[in-house]
Design a protein that fits this description.
Elements: E1 19-23, E2 34-44, E3 49-54, H1 55-65
Antiparallel strand pairs: 1-2, 2-3
Length: about 70
């Protein structure tokens, strides 16, 4: 996904392993209706893009390895 903050010099160092969140709907007034989309894995400086694993892949992995 695009990382627009890179255009003003902010780099996402330390984002690896953090959650990628989105609003489930667009409310008129902000409220905590966030949903986890995935986990950040990499940043590509030249294209200013973040890479991540979808939450379904993470959940599937955890279901397989945890009893």
């Amino acid at each position: 996904m695009d990382y627009p903050s890179a255009q003003i010099g902010r780099l996402p160092f330390g984002f690896s392993g953090c959650g990628i969140w989105f609003h489930k709907s667009t409310p008129k007034v902000w409220h905590p209706n966030l949903q986890l989309a995935g986990i950040c894995t990499s940043y590509y400086r030249r294209s200013r893009m973040l890479s991540g694993l979808k939450v379904e892949a993470v959940a599937g992995f955890l279901e397989r390895i945890l009893p």
